[in-house]
Structures are given as C-alpha cells and as structure tokens.
C-alpha cells in the first residue's frame, strides 16, 4: 500500500514558539530541536513535551538569537548550535541531566553550520566566509582555519556573499559543497583552503540546497525551480518548476528518492527525485507561511513543518490507516511544566554566561 503523510500533532506555546527559525530531528528520530528567537528548544517527539530550553546571552535588550543548529551524527543526544553573538554551544544529555559546553567564536554572523559524518569537524558559514572547527573530548570547539570568499564571476562581481547551504562531501572528508545566493555552488578543499570546482555558475538566486545521502546528487532551489544536479557529471538531471519569487527550503528525504519543498501557493510538497513527479501535498491552513521543515527516515517516516509560532508533525501511514485525532492538537498542555522549564532555562542561560566568561575570546 502507498504511504501517505498525515498530521499527527500540532505544537504551539506562547513562551517557546515565538519565532521559529530552524528544525532538526535527532539521528534516532526521538527528539526534535528547534530555534525560537533566543531559545534553543528540544521536544520529545512521541510525548510532545519540552525537555529542555537553552537561552542565549542577554545582550541588554533581548536574548542573543539562535542562528543555526545541528545534531551530532552517531550520538543519541548531542546538539551543536550557534548564537548571533558568536557563541558555539554543545548540549549533551546523560540520564536526566543536561550538560553544556560553549566557546565565543568571535564571529557575529554565522548563518549555517554542518558537521562531518564522524562529528569531529564543524563548518560554520556566513557573510565572512567559512570557518572550520574541531571538537575535543570535553565537547568544546577549537578553531582550525578560515576559508575565504567564493570565486566571483562577471555576473556576480559586486553581489554580497550569502551562504544558503553547507554540506560535507562524504566520499572526500576534507571537501565542502557550499551553495551561495548569488555565487552558484562551489566545492572547497578544506586542507588547502581553496575552491577546487564550481558546479553551478549562474546569476540566478539560490535559496537553499540539499545533498543526497549517497553524495551523488545536489538539489538547489532557484527562482525558476528546483534543480537536481549530478555531482560527477555536473549536469542537471531533473527540474521541478515552482514559480516562487523567493526560493524556499528544500530537503532530500526517503534516502534521496524524494524531494521536499514548497510551492507558490504556500503548500509543502513531496516530489520524486528521479522523475520530478509530485507524490503528495501536505495541506494546512491557507494563511500559513512555512518557514522551515525537517525530516527523519531512518526508523520511521516523519516530517516536521513550522510557521512562525506553530510546529506540525507529520507521520507516514499506509492509505486507509488513521491517526488518533486526540493526538493532533496541542494548545496550552505544557502549563504544568511551565515553572520547571523556566527554572531550567534560566539555570542553563546562567551556565552559558559563566562558561563564556571563563573561556574568554579565542586566542
């Protein structure tokens, strides 16, 4: 029977769903991390309960915003995130205790991060270029090298550098594939710090990119549509039109067999990555403007979608199956945990400040 995604639950909260900007499932699919302004929040997927809230430093007027997040590969609970003020933090868990390590990178404009398959290297990118970091046994990060700005061409000579995706090229552990809004897609050799290849040299704006799990194809979201390119031959394999003025996020799912993206009508759709055929539309309120999504396809098929103040979890079931309707709404059911979460978030925020004060700036 055909698998179809259906909404399993909706999560909203006045305190912890203020301005959702990023989503990511843990490697085992048990947890969902998301950013909410100056807070990093983690939900337990099956119970729909907040486990922990990490707050950024108080900058005087507001909390430092979470700018990027990722789960450490091959670990059950280890999140790496960056804040607007340059803090790179690692959050781990043992039993019922959460542990925090952080360093002030002195970089104030990190927008994207990527961990290599072993989790030993971190690439952090922004308008400054890309910085490479390595981890130590204490879950903290040490600076290794700085990669420069991308190659410029006549069509983008004066364009501002804006990174829209970073991916470790797994067969070549010292190579990065980076997509830029106005500078195409370029492959960096981390050891030499040089660009070794350009996959796409176009003046068309690139909104985001996604690397297939086998590292053979790269999907890019452009103004004309979603294009899937074969990395070895550098030729486009499939083009999916979307008519979006501003290209939205895209993501390979189902082991690279499907592509998740948005349409002009504001819908989230699944397309086949081989033929570009539309497989399913994930329909929600017409007033919803989707900001980001994440997917898990290792132990079961899950998709999380988010608007500014709401997260919807979708689960794939066989056609004809139903999901208990009592699981589909979640409004105000966390009040009994409110005090505990406030105390926990304040405590962790204080720990961040203490850690950064002790670590000091990078030498």
TrEMBL record:
Superkingdom of origin: Eukaryota
Statement: the UniProt record of this protein carries the keyword Protein transport: no
Cellular component terms per the entry's GO annotation: THO complex part of transcription export complex
Keywords: Membrane, Repeat, Transmembrane, Transmembrane helix, WD repeat
A GO BP annotation: mRNA export from nucleus
Record has Transmembrane helix as a keyword: yes
Transmembrane segments annotated in the record for this chain: 338-359
Name used for this protein in its record: Anaphase-promoting complex subunit 4 WD40 domain-containing protein
